Amino acid sequence: xxxxxxxxxxxxxxxxxxxxxxxxxxxxxxxxxxxxxxxxxxxxxxxxxxxxxxxxxxxxxxxxxxxxxxxxxxxxxxxxxxxxxxxxxxxxxxxxxxxxxxxxxxxxxxxxxxxxxxxxxxxxxxxxxxxxxxxxxxxxxxxxxxxxxxxxxxxxxxxxxxxxxxxxxxxxxxxxxxxxxxxxxxxxxxxxxxxxxxxxxxxxxxxxxxxxxxxxxxxxxxxxxxxxxxxxxxxxxxxxxxxxxxxxxxxxxxxxxxxxxxxxxxxxxxxxxxxxxxxxxxxxxxxxxxxxxxxxxxxxxxxxxxxxxxxxxxxxxxxxxxxxxx
Amino acid sequence: xxxxxxxxxxxxxxxxxxxxxxxxxxxxxxxxxxxxxxxxxxxxxxxxxxxxxxxxxxxxxxxxxxxxxxxxxxxxxxxxxxxxxxxxxxxxxxxxxxxxxxxxxxxxxxxxxxxxxxxxxxxxxxxxxxxxxxxxxxxxxxxxxxxxxxxxxxxxxxxxxxxxxxxxxxxxxxxxxxxxxxxxxxxxxxxxxxxxxxxxxxxxxxxxxxxxxxxxxxxxxxxxxxxxxxxxxxxxxxxxxxxxxxxxxxxxxxxxxxxxxxxxxxxxxxxxxxxxxxxxxxxxxxxxxxxxxxxxxxxxxxxxxxxxxxxxxxxxxxxxxxxxxxxxxxxxxxxxxxxxxxxxxxxxxxxxxxxxxxxxxxxxxxxxxxxxxxxxxxxxxxxxxxxxxxxxxxxxxxxxxxxxxxxxxxxxxxxxxxxxxxxxxxxxxxxxxxxxxxxxxxxxxxxxxxxxxxxxxxxxxxxxxxxxxxxxxxxxxxxxxxxxxxxxxxxxxxxxxxxxxxxxxxxxxxxxxxxxxxxxxxxxxxxxx
Lengths: 326, 529
What we know:
The structure holds two protein chains of two kinds. By secondary structure, chain A is mainly alpha-helical. Chain A has helices spanning 2-26, 33-38, 44-53, 60-72, 86-121, 126-140, 143-157, 182-215, 218-225, 230-259, 262-267, 273-282, 286-314, 316-325; strands at residues 170-172, 175-177. Chain A has a two-stranded antiparallel ribbon. In chain A, helix 7 (143-157) crosses helix 8. The longest helix of chain A has 36 residues, at 86-121. Chain A is globular. The model of chain A has no long low-confidence stretch (mean pLDDT 81). Chain B is an alpha+beta fold. Helices cover 31% and strands 23% of the residues of chain B. In chain B, strand 2 (60-62) and strand 3 form a beta hairpin. Residues 10-21 of chain B have low confidence and may be disordered. The chains are: A mainly alpha, B alpha+beta. Chains A and B meet through helix 2, helix 3, helix 7 and helix 12 of A and helix 8 and helix 14 of B.
């Protein structure tokens, strides 16, 4: 077990290094932060001074090495755009994104799994067909369009829910939460649905096909032959066995939700990390972009590791196979 | 019975609301961008100054028509050619309680002169500022500067003791590891004082009941609180206004204006902006970087520049792309700018046949190929304008490839002189023509301000001489120099002028406010009903 974790961690290191190199190299082409920081009026001397001040006159690998050295200590410097420490900016935005991602994941699971079970069991009912059609919408409509349609319906026409922002937030130490106020919860609904809709349909379709697969197997037939009630067969035996791949996918999708909240956050002006990233791209704020990409890479690496460990715990075959090898 | 009870309840509610309304008049204001900093001398960009202008006062303020008015200075006179005397307002207090004196004024000018300041252009001629007594200050200039008051309207006054206490005697510096106090804190003398600041989320300003200006005539605003919220997505910003979550949108997208005009409870206020879009060209290289013409530069030929000018159907651009929201022009700046001459505001007419003839005369009967550089997120519909122009030029034989990009790479590219022809929009914060002539048309010679945005490297000794005259002459002579420069601009076609931008503001109908041509709302004049 320990060796397994260590080997996984060692694999993660080069991944992080490559990600940081690629992201850093990419930023050489997003534009010149100097031009944006100087504004409309400046002299050539001021421009050169600023370039030197930011260290942009040094060779690429020197810049990269100093970036890596600082990054390893969690020091990403000062944002060019906001003149504030990058680590502080990201820590400030993280709660918004994490709360949104968790809510989206919860909606996706809490709605997607029952819908999947239902459509798997009653393949030909009209409700199943409706669910499947609905899931097509979720898969095929782009996120920003879904967000804008929701805003149009629930904010502009019905006036029930806010169209932007986080509403009232309550500060708990360094964490800020929208869960503790009615305004905060109301503000969460539309963005969470927008962000979770794709995952919801994905999980529903996954559960449905897994259910149909499992329901055909011998042990289900055997369970029925034993005279077990339908409920026990469907949920106790069938669903339980479909959940292994669902957990894997859901785990990996959580990473995707955090990383790709960018569009949803932009549409709803949700003050999270994705919005910070998009605004940084607009003004070529290299320190923030680099730190964000590194962090997302870290999230994915961590989630992969946890999923691997879960597999290890859930699937007995894996353990036996490794046991023999040792 | 039921109905009566409901009526009573409604009346009670209405009464409560009316009472609350009498005390609290909140304006919720949205725009696409948030101020990057609140340091008053760090970044000279609209999103910063539109918020700071509510909090800080300059020595010289601007009225609703952008005319100069007394601000923290009651009067200003040029006692010697290079010495200006300012008599300051007495009894003014900063939001944190310090008294405003000539010490603070001297300190503020000096702070704006620091190398980390982005306000160099407004203080470039200043040698030093000195306090004469507690409420009199002199500014000594290096050269005669007739438009110093115009420039000082953009320099905010800060408290010396407060800045020293918070270690912020210089504008913020990117090299520092620590965040500077002035990035997120303010202490002005203005009509509103900041009570909350969450960057990119919200900025809350409360009415400063002690503001000196409330006693002056004209400042009729009754707003007690301003809540500024940035909303980057165009559609969401409009939706928030339609659903009543915000009261005022500074930059509604123009494709939604008709919708907003038609909606109940919202209206659109339009006015000209002091910003002019034009095409600038590389008139200096012997061979263009992005063209198929070898061995010579077609844009150095006046006839080619005129041909490109004749090829543009500006009326079509105004009608279809700008949906009427532009003022086509044949000159360098709009009428709000000192030096404007209506007689010189004449375009070369749209005439495709004439364009083809001129190209043939210049030796390009089959036209040539060129790449037009353009931003796609800086000016109103900038990419679409460039698309239309590229098509119009291609029609007369100049096969134009469009290279549209976001402002960050766009400005980086043109500032390396890495362009053959590009579109730029130019605002004039000093409201004096010198600013445009000097930055855009003077030969780049290393002197402060000369030709710093002249990326076509246009160079004409006649123009340079006129710019020098504008810098030092006064009155009618200076006026004549400007007039002459505008005539030369028309004749020599260093740019192809397009239009002045029109800026729409959208708001709830219960809001009364004057439209400002510098795109900075002034809440001291805003009335909420």
